[in-house]
Amino acid sequence: MDTSDFSKPVLGIETSCDETGVALLRWQPDAPGRGLLAHVLYSQIKLHADYGGVVPELASRDHVRKLLPLVREALAQAGLAPADLGGVAYTAGPGLVGALLVGAAAGRALAWALGVPAIGVHHMEGHLLAPLLEDDPPAPPFVALLVSGGHSMLVEVKGIGRYRILGDTLDDAAGEAFDKTAKLMGLPYPGGPALAKLAEQGRPGAFHFSRPMTDRPGLDFSFSGLKTQVLLAWQQSDQSGQTRADVARAFEEAIVDTLVIKCRRALEATGARRLVIAGGVGANRRLRAELAAAGGREGFRTYFPRLAFCTDNGAMIALAGAIRLAHGQHQDERIQVFPRWDLESLPAA
Amino acid sequence: MSARQVELPDEQATGALAQALAAALDGGLVILLHGELGAGKTSFARALLRALGVGERIKSPTYSLVESYRLPGGTAWHLDLYRIADPAELEWLGLDALADPSALVLVEWPERGEGALPPPDLRIRLDYAGGGRRAELEAASPRGARLLERLG
Amino acid sequence: MNLLAIETSTEACSVALVHGEEIVARGELAPRRHAELVLPMADALLAEAGVGRHALDAIAVGRGPGAFTGVRLGVSLAQGMALALDVPVVPVSSLAALALEAPQEEDAAILAAIDARMGEIYAASYRPDGAGGLLALDRERVTTAEALELPVAAHWQVVGTGWATYGEALRGRLTGALRTAGGAHYPQARHVAVLAVREFRAGRAQAPEHALPVYLRDKVALTLAEQGKA
């Protein structure tokens, strides 16, 4: 992958959903730490918990309050002034339109005032490239499993902007299935991580749920039916604490097994030997352990970015932006956001 | 304008109504879906889109407000305005295409988008009825009335 | 002084530049296209006046009330510019800017009313202060036209899209004779600029992170507990 360095610090801004992320990166693929100078994040999870889910208008209002203080904090961490910046990268989509506009407008205006280039970054490209922020990064071609509250996707990565979607969910994303299942067993929003924790106390084999869409060829997922199976099992059970943990365990195993099966198939179909795991569900311990074990058995390597770069963050946006800026790509002065944006439509770099 | 009522005791009945509606569709239509939280608006929209041949992922548009799908005869738009705070927000989504007469437009919580939506052809009200649901279909334009006639 | 003003809180998008004693402005009625228009407009004004970006002393912005997304766009733009240039932001009421669209006559009060949709308006009333500025007669609020309470004044000028949508109801709320009314008026950056210069000179410019939107409508969703009650 040609990842020419971009010698001046790039400011990365992420505001596509419910996390405000800001980072500064002087991109040097061969330097220790890759040139990451600062990385700060504000999560709105508490704000939305009372509403049982993300309220887009409240998310936008919070981004506008938090973004500038975070930019100042990142600059202070890096010991830089705005005038030291060489470029600005912001998430231009996909995501919530009002939330995207906050980061895009502030970021584009900042670049305009400084007279430096700016670039709108595809949020999912940020996730795909996040492992490049780690030591010993994967070289393409590789397969990426993107699993979060909003996405469950398998993508073949042949280079920057050379992406092919191998599989996608037909309904709920994996993280969404975790949250919804947690909710129907009475755990507060966002219940996914709590459900995974509960699963650690569950007894293996007490319940069994099917592995959706693994009985036929193909790389697509479907998780909404699993939710119904869990609901039935839960309603017919004694609903004790131990049962809740048992159900959680069986549910988590069903999701993880399904993801592992599809990852193996994707590697087989593409001939790639490297697998990158990204997105919030990438933090799941069972998923990490099972994929690493499968890799050991079958001879493929797994790459997990650190947890902070699995979930939404500004560093991955600074990175994807810096790589594209280094290739001379940038945005003109029209501020544009794309709430829906096809990953495969991105230009190669 | 014409109207009718359909009992939907289970998922199969919802699927059958969606199939019938899909078969009767002739070009674009603007359908407003009314009903409380959990009344089955998203399930119905999903069933209709599947019946029309959408093979890709059908997401709930609760957060994105709008999702779009390619259909053989045009584009389908699925809107859920439950979490919209200001109808003016719709203007930022670039929804000029909703006014395209060949577009199929499905809107959940349409009352929250008042003034920013194209005029409706059909209103579907979903209510709880026993263990299942009841759908009331009401034409809101000549195009909607013709559709109900074809539905038989 | 040099000051750049942005107003994007309604269907109208405009930018103005104060350069010494002069004000130049550009604007367009362009729903949805604000984000694409603002920076090119600002470039054109700066080039026309021969002012460099780094010569700007402050950024002014119509901070609402208005369409939420538009208000946030303007504020975010102003914040980004001001942070980069290390200058303050002067937030100005979009209703006050709108009030300057009405004829400025000292014996008449001005009601500025923006259609807030969902059956309501954003409203505030003013009187010209005789020196090119405004005195506020009441607070900005979001209300139905029918429930609008106005201070006593012998004559009224009404301005804004609130009049276009709820003219009849508003007429019934006036406490004096109606002198003029214009429904096709929007807050404009040139008026944001006029008010901002006065605020700036009065020492009321702010650090960019403290210049925040004013929405007025703050209850935008129901919590789980409230949904349960409903």
Give a brief outline of the structure.
The complex is a heterotrimer of chains A (349), B (152) and C (230). Chain B has 152 residues and is an alpha/beta fold. Chain B contains three helices and seven strands; from the N terminus they run E-H-E-H-E-E-E-E-E-H.
Account of the 3D structure:
The complex is a heterotrimer of chains A (349), B (152) and C (230). With 349 residues, chain A is of the alpha/beta class. Chain A has helices at 45-49, 56-78, 97-114, 123-129, 174-184, 192-199, 224-235, 241-270, 285-298, 307-310, 314-326, and strands at 10-14, 19-25, 36-43, 87-93, 118-122, 142-147, 152-159, 162-168, 274-278, 301-303. Chain A has 2 domains: 10-132 and 309-345, ATPase, nucleotide binding domain (Nucleotidyltransferase, domain 5, 2-Layer Sandwich), CATH 3.30.420.40; 140-304, ATPase, nucleotide binding domain (Nucleotidyltransferase, domain 5, 2-Layer Sandwich). The longest helix of chain A is centred in the last third of the chain and has 30 residues, at 241-270. Chain B has one domain: P-loop containing nucleotide triphosphate hydrolases (Rossmann fold, 3-Layer(aba) Sandwich), CATH 3.40.50. Chain B has a 7-stranded mixed β-sheet with strand order 1-7-6-2-5-4-3. Chain B is globular, with a radius of gyration of 14 Å. The model of chain B has no long low-confidence stretch (mean pLDDT 87). Chain C is α/β, with parallel strands linked by helices and 230 residues long. In chain C, 31% of the residues lie in helices and 29% in strands. In chain C, strands 6, 7, 8, 9, 10 and 11 form a 6-stranded mixed β-sheet that branches. A 5-stranded mixed β-sheet of chain C has the order 3-2-1-4-5, sandwiched between helices. In chain C, strand 6 (109-117) and strand 7 (120-128) form a beta hairpin. The chains are: A alpha/beta (349), B alpha/beta (152), C alpha/beta (230). Chains in contact: A-B, A-C, B-C. Chains A and C meet through helix 2 and helix 3 of A and helix 1, helix 2 and helix 6 of C.
